[in-house]
Design a protein that fits this description.
single chain, mainly beta, Immunoglobulin-like, five-stranded mixed β-sheet, four-stranded antiparallel β-sheet, 19 strands, 41% strand, binds copper (II) ion
Length: 258
């Protein structure tokens, strides 16, 4: 299951080094602590995980072709038709490009951002992937793999966005987000159909639903967690789940189609 995205290994490493924060806000704030001391660890003897299935309820929408109006150079980059992925469902009825994350219940500690960036490519005049997860302070590397110039215009609801051009294939720029937000909209002003979203989390317990896969969050210490799912067209849902020691919780969300 690729969607685990390395968290089982990564999280243990991260949590081992996080500090208990003196007077910090909770983990949702993303605040960097002024003082960090030795942290509680995720005890592998009791750690568990939460597997999340996100379903689409209703008749899956008819795929709509992306119209690359006024940009024959973008059309030429595709030998097959390209379909809009803003509301996409896989063959098993899973809703794609939804962000799943632990919304509440984590200890009030600062999670150091991963050293490796999240990558969003601009390829075929599309953002790939369309939806990505990053943590506060983690690099988000935007690349251009097209012979066509693109710009990257981030529009966070709080704080300042960025807007820059990537004029040639092989160019890239890395940005960082300093506040959690699910999700920051990104667009290319040259090609208005190009839209992406970056879900900025204060911790590493989040992932995006992909074709044929459920999302597994963990390893997590036993506890009571709120798990949230966001989709760009269908909104947000939350569920509370009790995770027992060594528990393997399975929960399902169901989003009604428009
Ligand atoms: Cu573009």
């Amino acid at each position: 299951m690729k969607q685990k995205q390395g968290f089982p290994a990564v999280c243990v490493g991260l949590v081992l080094v996080v500090g208990v924060v003196c007077g910090c806000k909770d983990s949702r704030s993303g605040a960097t602590p002024e003082h960090a001391v030795a942290a509680p660890t995720v005890d592998p003897a009791t750690a568990g995980s939460i597997t999340v299935t996100v379903r689409f309820r209703g008749t899956p929408p008819e795929p709509k072709p992306v119209v690359m109006r006024g940009a024959p150079q973008c059309v030429q980059l595709h030998s097959e038709p390209v379909y809009d992925e803003s509301l996409a469902v896989d063959a098993d009825g899973r809703l794609l490009h939804a962000v799943v994350w632990v919304d509440d219940g984590l200890p009030a500690v600062w999670f150091p951002p991963p050293a490796t960036p999240t990558v969003i490519d601009q390829k075929g005049c599309l953002y790939q992937p369309r939806v990505a997860v990053a943590t506060v302070g983690q690099g988000v590397e935007f690349r251009n793999s097209d012979p066509e110039p693109h710009n990257v215009h981030t529009q966070p609801q709080t704080g300042r966005g960025t807007n820059f051009m990537l004029t040639r294939a092989g160019t890239s720029r890395t940005v960082k987000f300093d506040k959690p937000e699910v999700a920051v909209r990104v667009g290319c002003d040259v090609h208005p159909w190009m839209v992406a979203y970056v879900a900025v989390l204060a911790h590493p317990y989040g992932a995006v639903t992909r074709r044929g896969e459920d999302v597994t969050l963990g390893p997590l210490p036993p506890g009571r967690y709120s798990v949230a799912v966001w989709h760009e067209k269908l909104g947000v849902q939350k569920q509370v789940v009790q995770l027992d020691p060594r528990g393997r919780a399975m929960i399902e969300f169901s989003f009604q189609g428009p």
